């Protein structure tokens, strides 16, 4: 649909850079099903600064791992700059992390 608004990459006109809708992440073992994230909705526009805070074990690291393309959700929608990330190959994810995403690990001192 052409509404006269440029919806291209980095347009700076309020398009969501990160859009999550109904995002979930479940970890499975033989005995336990752990719901780390459930029905997460989030919109971050280009130029916004966002912090994520919460108690230990609430899913912050899991969410950041998904946002940083290090892990994949088990449900919901994740759009990065308007494009779905669900079908990106490992190589494409690595290229995006290299060129567009900054990530500081919580245990950065363990990386040598």
Which keywords apply here?
alpha+beta; 17% helix; 2 helices; 112 residues; single chain; four-stranded antiparallel β-sheet; 4 strands; Rossmann fold; disordered N terminus; globular
Rg over CA atoms, rounded to whole Å, is 16 Å
Determine the structural class based on helices, strands and strand pairing.
Answer: alpha+beta
What fraction, in percent, of the residue positions are helical?
Answer: 10-25%
- Report the β-strand fraction as a percent range: 25-35%
Major sheet? 4 strands, antiparallel
Report the end-to-end length measured between terminal Cα atoms.
49 Å
Overall tally of structural domains: 1
CATH fold-level topology: Rossmann fold
Which CATH-level-2 architecture?
A: 3-Layer(aba) Sandwich
Order of H and E elements: EEHEEH
Structure description:
- The chain has 2 helices and 4 strands.
- The relative contact order is 0.20.
- It is 17% helix and 30% strand.
- β1 (16-28) and β2 form a beta hairpin.
- The radius of gyration is 16 Å and the shape is globular.
- The chain has a 4-stranded antiparallel β-sheet with strand order 2-1-3-4, with helices on one face.
- The chain has helices spanning 60-67, 90-100; strands spanning 16-28, 33-45, 75-80, 83-84.
- The chain has a single domain, classed as P-loop containing nucleotide triphosphate hydrolases (Rossmann fold, 3-Layer(aba) Sandwich).
- With 112 residues, it is α+β, with helices and mostly antiparallel strands.
Summarize the structure.
17% of the residues lie in helices and 30% in strands. It has 2 helices and 4 strands; from the N terminus they run E-E-H-E-E-H.
């Amino acid at each position: 649909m052409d509404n006269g608004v440029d919806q291209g990459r980095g347009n700076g006109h309020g398009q969501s850079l990160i859009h999550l809708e109904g995002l979930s992440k479940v970890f499975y073992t033989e005995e336990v099903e752990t719901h780390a994230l459930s029905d997460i909705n989030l919109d971050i526009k280009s130029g916004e600064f966002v912090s994520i805070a919460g108690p230990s074990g609430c899913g912050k690291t899991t969410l950041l791992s998904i946002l940083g393309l290090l892990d994949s959700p088990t449900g919901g929608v994740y759009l990065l700059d308007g494009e779905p990330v669900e079908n990106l190959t490992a190589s494409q994810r690595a290229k995006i992390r290299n060129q567009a995403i900054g990530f500081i690990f919580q245990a950065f001192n363990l990386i040598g």
